[in-house]
């Protein structure tokens, strides 16, 4: 007997196979039992017809409880009525692991309840679909950067200094000195770019921000490319090509997940058209002020309502260029003709999803960088290795960071970033 996974059903139509699965739900009439089965790859239906199986099989099918693990034997057939397109005509059932009083029932549950049971909530069809899209974005990320000759480098998670100041860092004891959980691998990626030319990292980052917005997590994953001999405009082209590649990959490979989530493919298809629009920070402030945002003045950072309005004005991901120097980190390259802004850009996702990428060209002048480190109240000795990069063959270089969970949230069309990571860490949540 061949054992297959549900996702492989289309290749076995007309064959009798065995599938290991869990019973997500069931319903029955007097003569037919309908089993909603899942195995981690997909969900589909098992049909048990009383007249076609031994009495004990039909009795067992009717008595199966939610999330009982089973081995199902039966014939794969097409099912044009379902989105998945296939089902199994069940001939035998073996119970592998019973489930009693499963807490997440088909009824409505509150968010706190679901988050307390996140270890079980992941089994639901919606959460499964979101994680499938997350997985595709991860797979496509490696494909994109490997195809473009980037080398993956893993920066440390424990660091002795901070790229953007220590205010929002988690501090820990590192034997006889202080250490911090990384808020970004960027500084290390700059060192790697000087060794390998084009590099990227992909790992967890930590921000001790006391924020409760739908866009914030305490622990999240970042993709951070860094490129030597690269100016900002060239970096922007890589960024938009990368994002368009992710969108197209989700469209090509996540049909089932998009169906489950009800995500409109025609909307996503708009985000594969390049180039993405660009607007300067100056013009963005003017745009907001001319449209009733009296709370914004030049020099302010943009909040969620501001980013949403700007993105909606273009109906595509949009780059906001050259923010004020005072609200950006110390390492950004100064503008060649203005002292008040730096060469940087944020990519704002449409549909109200906010910033998904932050990037810049990096300062290359040793004396300027040293001055900035001192001006930001940072310890020069802690950054001596970083300054070395400007002493030994400094070159123009640029990079960016894409937040994985925000991108998953956007492409999935869901409301809150907490569903975009398997086990979210929030301001008041570290369980489970």
Automatic annotation (TrEMBL):
Coiled-coil ranges per UniProt: none
Record GO biological process: asparaginyl-tRNA aminoacylation
GO cellular component: cytoplasm
Keyword hit for Ligase: yes
InterPro entries cross-referenced by the UniProt entry: Aa-tRNA-synt_II, aa-tRNA-synth_II, aa-tRNA-synth_II/BPL/LPL, Asn-tRNA-ligase, Asp/Asn-tRNA-synth_IIb, NA-bd_OB-fold, NA-bd_OB_tRNA
GO terms assigned for molecular function: asparagine-tRNA ligase activity; ATP binding; catalytic activity, acting on a protein; nucleic acid binding; transferase activity
Top enzyme class: ligase
Keywords: Aminoacyl-tRNA synthetase, ATP-binding, Cytoplasm, Ligase, Nucleotide-binding, Protein biosynthesis
Catalyzed reactions: tRNA(Asn) + L-asparagine + ATP = L-asparaginyl-tRNA(Asn) + AMP + diphosphate + H(+)
Aminoacyl-transfer RNA synthetases class-II family profile domain residues: 133-432
Entry-linked PROSITE patterns: AA_TRNA_LIGASE_II
Keyword Ligase: yes
Location in or out of the cell: Cytoplasm
Matches recorded under Pfam families: tRNA-synt_2, tRNA_anti-codon
Domain of life: Bacteria
Family stated for the protein in its record: Belongs to the class-II aminoacyl-tRNA synthetase family.
Subunit structure, as described in the record: Homodimer.
Protein name: Asparagine--tRNA ligase
Organism per entry: Enterococcus sulfureus ATCC 49903
Gene that produces this protein: asnS
